[in-house]
Amino acid sequence: MMPLISDKSIAPSLEKKPAEEPKKLKACCACPDTKRARDACIMENGEEKCGHLIEAHKECMRKMGFNI
């Protein structure tokens, strides 16, 4: 006679684990390239001369899901 396997012995491998939520990206860590270029331009030239880089960074942030 073959030994019986209890339901309890196989249950842990069949249990569904809750789906992990994707880790949310913080605004400070999103779009590092456009942020770096924007910040350097502002430091060297002033905000009024860096509108194109500011807008590029905003667009990148929007693509990453931030409401800017």
Description:
By secondary structure, the protein is mainly alpha-helical. It is 51% helix and 0% strand. The protein is built from 3 helices and no strands. It has helices at 7-14, 32-45, 51-63. Helix 2 runs antiparallel to helix 3 (51-63). The model has no long low-confidence stretch (mean pLDDT 83).
- Strand percentage lies at under 5%
Q: Based on DSSP secondary structure assignment, what is the total number of beta strands?
A: 0
Helix/sheet category: mainly alpha
The pLDDT mean sits at: 83
Number of helices, counting only DSSP H or I runs of 4 residues or more:
3
What proportion of the residues is helical, as a percent range?
Answer: 40-55%
The ordered string of helix (H) and strand (E) elements is HHH
**Rg over C-alpha atoms, rounded to the nearest angstrom:** 25 Å
Indicate the multimeric state.
Answer: single chain
Shape: rod-shaped
N-to-C CA distance:
69 Å
Largest sheet: none
Low-pLDDT sequence parts = none
Keywords:
68 residues; mainly alpha; 3 helices; 51% helix; 0% strand
Quick overview:
The chain is built from three helices and no strands. The protein has helices at residues 7-14, 32-45, 51-63.
Topology:
Layout: H1 7-14, H2 32-45, H3 51-63
Helix pairs in contact: 2-3
